[in-house]
Amino acid sequence: MLYHMPTAIIFGAGKVSELGGVVQGKFRSSQPLLITDQGVFKAGIVERILSDLPAIPVFDEIEPNPKYSTVNRGGAIARQIKPDLVIGLGGGSVLDAAKAVALLATNPGWIEEYEGRERYKNPPLPVLAIPTTCGTGSEVTWVSVVTHTEKRFKMSIKGSRMYPAVALVDPDLLMTLPPHLIASTGLDALTHGLEAYTSKPANFLTDVLALEALRLIFRHLTEAHRDIKNNAEAREGLMLGSLLAGMAFGNSDVGAIHCLAESIGSLYDTPHGAANAIFLPHVMEFNLPAAREKYAVVAAAVGLEGADQDNASHLLIQKIKGLSRLLSIPSFRDLGIPEGDFDLIAQKSFENNSNPSNAREATAKDYLAILKHASSG
Ligand SMILES: [Fe+2]
Predict the structure, then answer these.
(1) For residue 216, how far is its CA from the centre of ligand 1 (angstroms)?
(2) Which residues pair with 32 in a beta bridge?
(3) How far is the CA of 52 from the centre of ligand 1 (A)?
(4) Which of 50, 187, 231, 253 is the residue whose CA sits 20 to 30 A from 3?
């Protein structure tokens, strides 16, 4: 059994106020580069955080499903200003982009040349990751996912030196997150926990993390969605759940839900969290023959009492469907994806490097059947 996660975690409400001390004390950084996006900027978070630091350069052009061209532009800026630290402030897209920019700052060429595992020669710059959503997990994983827009493909850039050096996780940063993003990123975290727990590489240590993540997310997601601004307990519980789920899937893996979500994300730019939430119950139904026992354990952990494993699994799937409805997650049909594209989506999902980790073996034909089932229901 192996568990590896070298990121130092600083967690707690208000902890972001310690940023200056972390940057100048722990990192002894005199030239950090901040990577963020327009949404975080408009929420006033950048301004608040920068008031703690001397003037630093900011690259705020990261879009959802970050494009390789944007990351390469960030890399060129990093090579020009030669920072000694990259700070990522945002959701999963920003944190993934920050890791990729840190790699390009110390290595030549374009980000697409580094797709795969350990393809870089020089260690990337240290990354300080500050999540502003409750779903990414990227603050504690070794992967950066970047979209190759021409190839309509999500590249995974992985390496043992890609883990952020520090994750500064402050639940109060969720206060300004709009409800639809709490819903989609919260359900992304739930998917991380569920796939980490049921995927083939899971072990005892990732199981402990995944189960506790699921308990926290089920307990707090609805309340956080209703009124995150005035509910400190829900903010903290959801952020902790998201963090634990990231620590779980970072050492286990995700599965078929993420394979489908990444495929439609690369083809139609569907937001990652919403795509996961859409496929979650459909893949669970497909995975039942291989994951029934584990679904029953999750059901018990979140307070569902089934007569037997089969009944408990179905109760869990029903609960997740109800949660999606309550959080106004669209259906697969609402996305308007033409049926003529299903073969391509199925093939891409099958070729995803997390497909072999799925609880039940899934062929391209199986993915096609899941897509048809999702479009009819
Ligand atoms: Fe995810």
Answers:
(1) 17
(2) 85
(3) 31
(4) 187
The alpha carbon of 306 and the centre of ligand 1 are apart by a number of angstroms equal to 28
Query: Is 45 in contact with 67 (CB distance < 8 Å)?
Result: no
Query: At 153, is the pLDDT very low, low, confident or very high (cuts 50, 70, 90)?
Result: confident
Measured distance CA(55)–CA(278) in Å, rounded: 42
How crowded is the C-beta side of 178, counted as CA atoms within 13 Å?
Answer: 7
**Has residue 46 got a pLDDT over 80?**
yes
Residue 55 CA to ligand 1 centre (angstroms): 33
Three-class SS state of 157: strand
> How many percent of the chain have pLDDT more than 90?
93
What is the whole-number distance in angstroms between the Cα of residue 30 and the centre of ligand 1? 33
Give the tens place of pLDDT for each residue, 53-67: 888 999 999 999 999
Query: For residue 163, what are the CA distances in angstroms to 10, 97, 112, 287?
Result: 15, 13, 19, 30
Strands 153-158 and 116-117, bridge-based pairing: parallel
Give the pLDDT score at 271.
Answer: 87
CA distance 21 to 1: 36
Residue 192 Cα, ligand 1 centroid: separation in angstroms? 6
For residue 217, give the nearest of 235, 231, 197, 203 by alpha carbon: 235
Q: How far is ligand 1, taken at its centre, from the CA of residue 307, in Å?
A: 32
Side chain identity, residue 34: L
User: From CA 276, how far away is CA 283, in angstroms rounded?
Assistant: 10
Task: Quote the pLDDT of residue 50.
Answer: 85
**How remote is the CA of residue 245 from the centroid of ligand 1, in Å?**
10
Q: Would you give the DSSP letter of residue 174?
A: G
